[in-house]
């Protein structure tokens, strides 16, 4: 069994470590964290490994996971490369925004590089462990590294998806569109209903079936076919009146409305006739 050392005792590192250890995929050699207490918590959650607080004390391993924040990936990789030979080892991180090329210090030491981005929230590691099966993971990197990591992900129920490292930031932005900005647009809808005199709780009940049906249709039929409303009908007179009214009510929301018109018109142009 290959050994895995984990740099970072946060939610992602602990979750993957526990899943791989429990499935007998990797043997956890050690967990490195900024403090002995944090490292110990990571080891306790995983159920294996040696807790350490200094890079030089991390046991040697076949594979190194850098489960740290994006701004710490480069320095953590440099510290790892400075404390041990990495020839033939696999070094990977779990950032959704950065490509594996950020691990250049490890490559200089002879390591194979990769990135693995699980597309889900890790707010509750224990819950994620229980429901990890089916989780999509964006993967990119050296073929020899992925030849080890992809089967390891599949062994814990993940669904690896190859991505273009040159478009890693755009890939990560996709999640922002699908999650964060979706909430922002829904907030605009709820505030607009309230501006029309509808109580907040009723506004949520009113918007929910519209939003849920639109989401369901978009995933079932595709975005173009699911599009409805004035732009889909070519009713730009209504669009202009709405934008003017929304802008008069709230300038920022009016700007948001106007920014969404051109991409929605382009989407409508793709709608089957």
- With helices defined by DSSP (H or I, 4 residues minimum), what is the helix count? 12
Q: Mean of residue pLDDT?
A: 97
Structural class by helix and strand composition: alpha/beta
Rounded to an integer in angstroms, the radius of gyration calculated over CA atoms is 23 Å
Q: Sheet with the most strands?
A: 8 strands, mixed
Number of strands: 8
End-to-end distance, in Å? Answer: 57 Å
In short:
The chain is of the alpha/beta class and 273 residues long.
Explain the overall architecture:
- Helix content is 56%, strand content 15%.
- The chain is of the alpha/beta class and 273 residues long.
- The chain has an 8-stranded mixed beta sheet with strand order 3-2-1-4-5-6-7-8, with helices on both faces.
- α11 runs antiparallel to α12 (251-269).
- The longest helix has 28 residues, at 168-195.
- The radius of gyration is 23 Å and the shape is elongated.
- It starts with a strand and ends with a helix.
- The model has no long low-confidence stretch (mean pLDDT 97).
């Amino acid at each position: 069994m290959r050994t895995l050392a984990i740099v970072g005792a946060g939610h992602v590192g602990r979750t993957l470590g526990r899943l791989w250890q429990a499935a007998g995929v990797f043997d956890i050699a050690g967990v490195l964290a900024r403090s002995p207490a944090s490292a110990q918590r990571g080891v306790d959650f995983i159920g294996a490994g040696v807790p350490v607080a200094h890079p030089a004390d991390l046991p040697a391993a076949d594979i190194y996971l850098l489960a740290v924040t994006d701004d710490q990936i480069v320095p953590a990789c440099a510290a790892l490369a400075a404390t041990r030979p990495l020839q033939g080892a696999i070094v990977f991180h779990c950032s959704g925004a950065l490509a594996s090329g950020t691990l250049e210090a490890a490559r200089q030491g002879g390591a194979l590089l990769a990135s693995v981005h699980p597309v889900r929230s890790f707010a509750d590691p224990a819950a994620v462990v229980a429901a990890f099966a089916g989780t999509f993971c964006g993967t990119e990197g050296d073929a020899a590294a992925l030849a080890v990591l992809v089967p390891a992900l599949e062994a814990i129920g993940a669904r690896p998806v190859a991505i273009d490292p040159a478009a890693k930031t755009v890939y990560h932005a996709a999640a922002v569109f699908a999650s964060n900005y979706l909430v922002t647009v829904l907030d605009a809808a709820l505030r607009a209903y309230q501006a029309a005199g509808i109580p907040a709780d009723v506004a949520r009940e009113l918007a929910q079936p519209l939003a849920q049906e639109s989401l369901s249709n978009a995933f079932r039929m595709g975005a173009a076919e699911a599009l409805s409303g004035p732009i889909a009908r070519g009713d730009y007179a209504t669009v202009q009146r709405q934008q003017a009214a929304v802008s008069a009510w709230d300038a920022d929301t009016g700007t948001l409305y106007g920014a969404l018109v051109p991409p929605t018109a382009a989407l409508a142009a793709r709608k089957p006739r």
